[in-house]
């Protein structure tokens, strides 16, 4: 199974960062392609996009200034299948991507993603201070996976804080 390509560009508004692609995403070749994943609904309902995009349109979000990557690029059934070595390598690669492309916001799609990246044990939802890479603001949002026990409205409200911050800039 091929890895899903990152969608990166210089000076993005938001770089969305997941754990790793699902098997379905790996098969489809697009980010957040599992039908049980609520990512595209959350983006629209939070005000981050004016319409609801489909997974196969993921690359077109570069036009909005939104990019996609993962801390680990290998598709797996779940995050529990990611090895410590993959996290170690992925953590360094992710930091290098953020330093190179300089997104305004790094949105970590899942608290565990940020914990793996930052090494911090206690993390709250929303903006993180200080950020790991100077010049990029870290934002932690809940995972959009259908396995998350939070109500989609609660998850959307957290993403809305990021949408509101964009409107202020």
UniProtKB/TrEMBL annotation:
Keyword vocabulary terms for this entry: DNA damage, DNA repair, Hydrolase
Biological process (GO), any one: base-excision repair, AP site formation
Record SUPFAM superfamilies: Uracil-DNA glycosylase-like (SSF52141)
CDD domains: UDG-F2_TDG_MUG (cd10028)
InterPro entries the record matches: MUG/TDG (IPR015637), Uracil-DNA_glycosylase-like (IPR005122), Uracil-DNA_glycosylase-like_sf (IPR036895)
Protein name per Swiss-Prot or TrEMBL: Mismatch-specific DNA-glycosylase
Lineage: superkingdom: Bacteria
Keyword Nucleotide-binding: no
């Amino acid at each position: 199974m091929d890895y899903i390509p990152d969608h990166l560009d210089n000076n993005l508004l938001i770089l969305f960062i997941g754990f790793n692609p699902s098997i379905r995403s790996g098969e489809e070749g697009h980010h957040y392609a599992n039908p049980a994943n609520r990512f595209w609904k959350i983006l629209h309902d939070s005000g981050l996009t004016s319409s609801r995009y489909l997974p196969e349109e993921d690359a077109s979000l570069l036009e909005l200034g939104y990019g996609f990557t993962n801390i680990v690029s290998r598709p797996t059934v779940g995050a529990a299948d990611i090895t410590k070595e993959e996290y170690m390598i992925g953590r360094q690669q992710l930091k290098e991507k953020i330093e190179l492309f300089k997104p305004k916001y790094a949105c970590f799609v899942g608290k565990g993603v940020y914990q793996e990246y930052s090494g911090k044990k206690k993390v709250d939802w929303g903006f993180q201070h200080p950020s790991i890479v100077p010049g990029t603001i870290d934002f932690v949002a809940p995972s959009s996976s259908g396995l998350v026990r939070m109500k989609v409205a609660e998850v959307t409200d957290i993403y809305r804080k990021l949408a509101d911050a964009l409107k202020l800039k």
